[in-house]
């Protein structure tokens, strides 16, 4: 028989113990996400070295201020005193560095003791390019239709500068842009050749055609031989991409489509080789007529 008057036994206080398993997180806590936190996107651009006295002066002339102008030691400080004074007056930041640091910043290019570090390459607008070639008798331009390989772009710019081309046009979309790698591949030629970057290559060609420039397209399907084509006078030579050649809209704007006769079993040249052949044929014709 149960004694209802018997006092109740003392209740043992309850202790809530948090058990932590081997994984290291308390069981009562929500499981952590195994996903790695998303990396913050960075919009920082890689700086492009602009080495040499003449390119630095060109930046100054065009009012383009670099992030910093690196100068190699006391020797160049004295030699370039006048230029450095002008740079400082334009608000440029000037730093004096060791020769080894300057060589490293120039990435193998001849720097003459000066390297300007810029965020964006100083392209010309189409109007600026036209203004430039208006000062030249019978100008020669090269236009690149979606050449995406930086090696080909650099090689074409090198050939263009050596052949006396007065400027180059490249599209914004689906095309390699001017970087330190392209400048190296061009052996620095990209710094001496006026380069226009346009959002619409077809429209740019229309404007040049309206200005009485003839557009010649280099295309392996062309029915006329390069060596039978008159490349004198005001001319734009258009070179297509490595895999697709010229786009239909670009072909329609060409007065002539020319091909390079080949004798071997390989039926085509890459973009840079084809451009070099065309540009130096133009140079040959112009040299004879001049």
Structural account:
With 290 residues, this protein is α/β, with parallel strands linked by helices. It has helices at residues 53-61, 73-79, 81-89, 99-106, 126-133, 150-162, 180-185, 201-210, 248-252, 271-289; strands spanning 48-51, 68-72, 94-97, 114-118, 140-144, 167-171, 195-198, 214-218, 224-225, 235-239, 256-259. The strands form two sheets. It has a seven-stranded parallel sheet, with helices on both faces. α6 (150-162) packs parallel to α10.
List the keywords:
alpha/beta, 60s Ribosomal Protein L30, Chain: A, 2 domains, seven-stranded parallel β-sheet, four-stranded mixed β-sheet, 10 helices, elongated
Question: How many separate domains make up the residues?
Answer: 2
How does the overall form come out from the CA principal axes?
A: elongated
Helix content: 25-40%
Order of helices and strands: EHEHHEHEHEHEHEHEEEHEH
CATH architecture of the largest domain: 3-Layer(aba) Sandwich
* pLDDT averaged residue by residue: 84
Could you give me the name of the CATH homologous superfamily of the largest domain? SPOUT methyltransferase, trefoil knot domain
Radius of gyration, rounded?
A: 32 Å
**DSSP strand count:** 11
CATH class bucket of the largest domain: Alpha Beta
Structural class: alpha/beta
Strand order of the largest sheet: 7-6-5-10-8-11-9
Poorly predicted parts? 15-29, 39-44
């Amino acid at each position: 028989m149960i004694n209802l008057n018997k006092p109740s036994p003392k209740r043992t206080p309850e202790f809530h113990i948090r058990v932590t398993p081997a994984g290291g997180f308390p069981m009562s806590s929500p499981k952590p996400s195994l996903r790695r936190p998303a990396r913050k996107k960075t919009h920082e651009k890689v700086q492009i070295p602009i080495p040499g006295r003449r390119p630095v002066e060109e930046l100054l002339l065009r009012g383009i201020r670099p992030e910093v102008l690196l100068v190699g030691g006391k020797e160049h400080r004295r030699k370039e005193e006048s230029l450095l004074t002008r740079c400082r007056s334009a608000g440029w930041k000037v730093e004096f560095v060791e020769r080894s640091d300057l060589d490293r910043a120039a990435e193998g290019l001849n720097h003459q003791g000066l390297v300007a570090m810029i965020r964006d390459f100083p392209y010309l607008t189409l109007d600026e390019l036209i203004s430039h070639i208006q000062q030249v008798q019978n100008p020669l331009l090269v236009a690149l239709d979606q050449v995406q390989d930086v090696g080909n772009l650099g090689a074409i710019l090198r050939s263009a500068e050596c052949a006396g081309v007065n400027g180059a046009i490249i599209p914004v979309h689906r095309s390699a842009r001017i970087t330190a790698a392209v400048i190296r591949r061009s052996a620095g030629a990209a710094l001496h050749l006026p380069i226009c970057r346009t959002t619409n290559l077809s429209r740019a060609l229309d404007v040049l055609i309206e200005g009485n420039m003839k557009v010649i397209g280099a295309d392996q399907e062309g029915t006329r031989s390069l060596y039978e084509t008159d490349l004198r006078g005001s001319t734009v030579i258009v070179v297509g991409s490595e895999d697709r050649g010229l786009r239909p809209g670009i072909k329609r704007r060409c007065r002539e489509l020319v091909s390079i006769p080949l004798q071997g079993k390989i039926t085509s040249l890459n973009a840079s080789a084809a451009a070099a052949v065309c540009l130096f044929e133009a140079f040959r014709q112009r040299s004879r007529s001049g």
